[in-house]
Amino acid sequence: MSASVLILGARSDIARACAHRYAREGYHVRLAARDPDSLEAEATDIALRYNVQATVHGFDALESESFAGFVDALPELPDVVLSAVGYMGEQEESQSDPQAAAEVIRSNFEGPALILGLLAERFESRGHGVIIGISSVAGDRGRASNYVYGAAKAGFTAFLSGLRNRFSRSDLQVITVKPGFVATRMTEGMDLNPRLTAQPEAVAQAIWRAQARRRNVIYVKPVWGLVMAIICHLPEFAFKRTRF
Amino acid sequence: MQLSGWGRFPRVDTRLSSPRDERALAALIAEGPLIARGMGRAYGDSALAAHTVDMGRFNKMIGFDAASGQLVAEAGVTLGEVIAAFLPRGWFLSVTPGTQFVSLGGAIAADVHGKNHHSEGSFGTFVDWIDLMGGDGQVQRCSREENADLFHWTLGGMGLTGVILRAAIRLKPVESAYIRQRTIAAPDLDAALEAFEATYSATYSMAWIDCAATGAKLGHSIVMTGEHATRAELTPARRFHPYRTPAHGNLRVPFDFPGFALNPTSVRLFNEVYYRSNARKPELSTSAYGPFFYPLDSIRDWNRIYGRKGFMQFQCVVPLEAHAEGLRAILQAITRSGAGSFLAVLKRMGPQDSRLSFPMAGYTLALDFPMHQRSLDLLPELDRITLDHGGRFYLAKDSRMSAQTLRETDPRWAEFTTMRRDSGLAGRFASAQSERLGL
Fold first, then answer.
1. Scanning every residue of chain A, which has its alpha carbon at the shortest distance from the alpha carbon of B66?
2. Which of B216, B266, B269, B333 is the most exposed place for a label (fewest CB within 10 A)?
3. Per UniProt, which keywords does this protein have (chain B) (predicted)?
């Protein structure tokens, strides 16, 4: 029987690229998002191209009480789960409106962490599984321009790190992905440095390779490792004056 | 931004839009004239305009019927993607051009042909229907039964009848991913033409022709024919995985060659070496589909060998009866000019009855010329020879023909222009090419 991958937040460009990448390797694909009907065409395309099963499932990252039922309703407990759930919001709105900030924090931290935590439990009792979380370089250090989003991603990064530590002696694999800039619907129209910007397909390829090579934390473009190392090591008195 | 076709000439200032769905596309059409673009493999300015619409996001496969081989897919799906998906299940394209990096929409708009034109027809022969977005943003299904007029104007209509959104095409069942190939060295043009007539019953045929050869060697060629290999014809090892082929090379031209790299001497040398190495090959061989159909696809960005200035393609078809004389006159004009085409392809075409499509019963010759004054002087002469012999031109390759030449060689476009004007399409869909040619 073929392995299967569950993709949460499947409407994002990175998620779609990952769905294609795994399907190309023969994985059955379970696409989950809030509005599953909008994913039907994508699922049909994947099934036709790669001759695998591709199904769609309703999933709302903000409704944590529905998570257990969601997992039980899947055709099988997947071999791989990838969370591409995320919502950047507007920093200014997040600063001034606690409700808006709560939505950003819940979408990027609470929801993804809880569903992956729940799947981790199931994977542990089965004995194997791969957990992939798409976090962000924004979570490496809080910046004025997006610290609400960044703080939520920092929480998610810490959660994944904890899972990895917990399962280090078992057959569970946990991968943290920090993509850097990616040319997606979310960043369309932004003025991004092309040398720091990856295509969604490159992100998917990096994730596939990270799984095959049992990597822990990856940046998609290696240059981001350097950039973030510098940013993280700036002393706070200097960092607090920066503007970027 | 600046955009060009595969020949990298001309470059046009364009606004490039990439709509994500039909609603966004309809809104763009309402703004004013535009042209849809797929993979940008038309050589000249067919898919260039002041406003160019990239169809890359309309790239989903929609359905496949394994009983009839009918595939429904969006216009941005490439032929290579169709092969990657369906060859492992025993299906191949009914017609394929010389590159798999073309979109379905582009293949229909140019009504492309392949090595099997003489035996099976053009790409349009295997198109069952097309969903076309018109100037009002409405989508019409066009087929031989429904909106038949629009269907026939769209095959070969160069994207000027609307934006092709989806289409149904028929694939052909094959037993393997391999081709039984026959290679015939033809010492001169007459021998090449004879070889084509003698192999007319072959499914696939084409010839590489040496444009640098002169005198008694004028038109010396390597004629290749092919049949899909049955499983029984494969070696026992391959029979195990008949649809699996060794990786087709993946070289890349990393930079623009300097302008002097391709000169008459290097072209002559390359062609001589190519002829001799092929003439020594065994007559019968088995080739994977990649090297047989898409020899140049293994070198990404091969258009960069012509340098920054780019190059022009010239492709004409000369009808039977006049063909031998016409081809000889063209080859003589080329050798006289010293322009020398690096890559030249000769192919027998079969009869075709269609509104706008390029093919007709006769011989087609496709030539590459670097962007150079010598070439610019030569090409009008080749136009004239083609015209004198009753031939016509392939718009997917054209970047510089005059409106008058098109009118004189191909009166069918006049009716098309009238239709476009009367139905309001002219104000909605236009390319740099349609404006140059007055379509």
1. A48
2. B216
3. FAD, Flavoprotein
Global pTM? Answer: 0.94
Q: Which of B315, B389, B340, B422 is nearest to B6 (CA)?
A: B315
Residues A169-183: pLDDT tens digits?
999 999 999 999 999
Amino acid at B327: L
Q: A185 in contact with B at a CB cutoff of 8 Å?
A: yes
- Nearest chain B Cα distance for residue A40, angstroms: 10
What is the pLDDT, as a whole number, of residue B434?
98
pLDDT in tens, A69-125: 999 999 999 999 999 999 999 999 999 999 999 999 999 999 999 999 999 999 999
Does A166 touch chain B if contact means CB atoms closer than 8 Å? no
- For tokens 């997992």, name the residue: A71
pLDDT by residue (tens digit) across B304-323? 888 888 999 999 999 999 99
Q: Which residue of B has its CA nearest to A44?
A: B62
What is the spatial distance between Cα B258 and Cα A227, in angstroms, rounded to a whole number?
37
Domain residues of chain A, as ranges?
Answer: 4-239
Beta carbons of B172 and B92 less than 8 angstroms apart: yes
- Distance of residue B38 Cα from the nearest chain A Cα, in angstroms: 18
In this structure, how many other beta carbons lie within 10 angstroms of the beta carbon of residue A135?
A: 27
**pLDDT at position A1, please?**
63
Crossing angle between the packed helical segments A40-50 and B79-86, to the nearest 10 degrees: 70
CATH fold of B178-407 reads: Vanillyl-alcohol Oxidase; Chain A, domain 3 (3.40.462)
Domains of chain B, residue spans: 178-407
* Chain A environment of B19 (Cβ under 8 Å): none
pLDDT range class, residue A185, cuts 50, 70, 90: confident
What's the pLDDT tens digit per position in B59-111? 999 999 999 999 999 999 999 999 999 999 999 999 999 999 999 999 999 99
Look at residues B422, B417, B410 and name the one whose alpha carbon lies nearest to residue B434: B417
Mean of all residue pLDDT scores within chain B: 94
Instruction: Report the distance separating Cα A35 and Cα A58, nearest Å.
Output: 6
Chain A hits for B60, CB-CB cut-off 8 Å, are 41-42, 44-45
Q: Which two tokens stand for residue A234?
A: 């700036």
Do A185 and B62 make contact, defined as CB atoms within 8 angstroms?
Answer: no
ipTM of the modeled complex: 0.91
Flag residues of chain B having pLDDT under 50: none
Inspect the interface and report whether the beta carbons of A44 and B84 lie closer than 8 Å: no
Q: Quick one: pLDDT at residue B249?
A: 66
CATH number of A4-239: 3.40.50.720
Give the whole-angstrom CA distance, residue A157 versus residue A64.
Answer: 19
Q: Which two tokens stand for residue A200?
A: 């969604």
Dihedral sign from CA coordinates of A115, A120, A126, A130: positive
Smallest Cα distance from B73 to chain A, Å: 9
Closest to B90 measured CA to CA, from B231, B261, B300: B231
Packing angle, helices A111-126 and A147-166, rounded to 10 = 10
Closest in A42, A49, A185 to B85, CB measured: A49
Does residue A49 sit at the B interface (CB-CB below 8 Å)? yes
* Contacts (Cβ under 8 Å, ≥6 apart) of B370: B259, B262, B306, B307, B309, B311, B342
Q: How far is A43 from chain B (nearest CA, A)?
A: 10
Residue B404: other Cβ atoms inside 10 A: 11
The pLDDT, as a whole number, for residue B228 is 98
Shortest Cα–Cα distance, A153 to chain B (Å): 28
Q: Which amino acid is at B424?
A: G
Are the beta carbons of B60 and A41 separated by less than 8 Å? yes
